[in-house]
Design goal:
By secondary structure, the chain is of the alpha+beta class. The chain folds into two domains: 2-152, Ribosomal Protein S5, domain 2 (2-Layer Sandwich); 159-266, GHMP kinase, C-terminal domain (Alpha-Beta Plaits, 2-Layer Sandwich). Helices cover 32% and strands 23% of the residues. It is built from nine helices and ten strands. A hairpin with a 6-residue loop joins β8 and β9. The longest helix has 16 residues, at 97-112.
């Protein structure tokens, strides 16, 4: 069995101070996009896990194996499987690749071990904050600790161009610095007047983690300023960064923008239905 595990961009991300558990409640509007890893799962005589395209841990700390373990525990079955992960989504870039890979394995293992879809979906929040988001797919709102996800019930047409700076940011480090800075609220990164018409009803796009990301990686500010000038439109950061994106009303405008930035690409799949549930469900 094989699926594509899609990336996401956080159009807006609001963060609250940590609860006693140490976790941060969030409110986000996110969109899954077609920048994708490939995940394959096959029943075999013994367990194996191989990663191509990135230097990632292959022990129990990897969210992929946590997802497999969760399904096994829920079903009481432990058939040996081979998992092959081909990484295409940049690591530590704010695009959710690790959680998307986990969601893909969760879906595949649930099919393999015959776990009910509702029971499968209930396992997502215990594996990673964005796993539930990827099990839904499309344009979504997520609240709580990422476990409450609803799809936006309207047709939306916009075209993101996504660019990844030549450095990484650890999600844990960004949240830790945000706490150390006493939880600063970000100013809007893309004002309403600069949004494609389909998104203007949501108001200005804001990412509260921006001040912490900029404090950890000062070059990010210069990088965003240069990109905004080149694209002729404001850019925003996705998740904990450092990936950034600009939003365009037409695909041709997004393609022209991406062509001006090394390593940038146009993200497809911005329809209401989204690719996530069609591929993972």
């Amino acid at each position: 069995m094989r699926v594509e595990a899609y990336a996401k961009i956080n159009l807006s991300l609001r963060v609250e101070p940590p609860s006693p558990s140490g976790m941060h409640p969030i409110r986000t509007i996110a969109q899954t996009v077609d920048w994708a890893d490939r995940v394959e799962l096959e029943e075999t005589e013994e367990d194996s896990f191989a990663v191509e395209g990135a230097d990632l841990p292959t022990d129990g700390s990897n969210l992929v194996l946590k997802a497999l373990a969760a399904v096994r525990e829920a079903t009481g079955r432990s058939h040996p499987v081979s998992i092959r992960l081909a990484k295409r989504i940049p690591v530590a870039a704010g695009l959710g690749g690790g959680s998307s890979d986990a969601a893909a394995v969760l879906a595949l293992a649930a099919q393999c071990l015959r776990l009910d879809p509702r029971a499968r979906d209930s396992l997502g929040p215990g594996i990673g904050a964005d796993v539930a988001l990827f099990l839904t797919g499309g344009l979504v709102r997520a609240t709580g600790y990422g476990e409450r996800v609803t799809r936006v019930p309207e047709a939306v047409t916009f075209h993101p161009a996504v660019a990844v700076p030549p450095f990484t940011l650890s999600t844990a480090d960004v949240y830790r610095r945000w706490d150390e800075m006493d939880g600063p609220a970000a100013t809007s990164t893309i004002a309403t007047r600069h949004l494609p018409p389909a998104l203007r009803s949501y108001g200005a796009l804001v990412n509260d983690l921006m001040p912490a990301a900029l404090d950890l990686a000062p070059d990010l500010g210069d990088w965003m300023s240069d990109l905004s000038r080149a694209w002729g439109t404001p850019v925003a950061m996705s998740g904990s960064g450092p990936s950034v994106f600009g939003l365009f009303p037409t695909r041709s405008e997004a393609e022209a923008a991406a062509a001006d930035a090394p390593g940038a690409r146009v993200a497809r799949g911005c329809s209401q239905t989204g690719a996530g549930r069609a591929r993972l469900g």
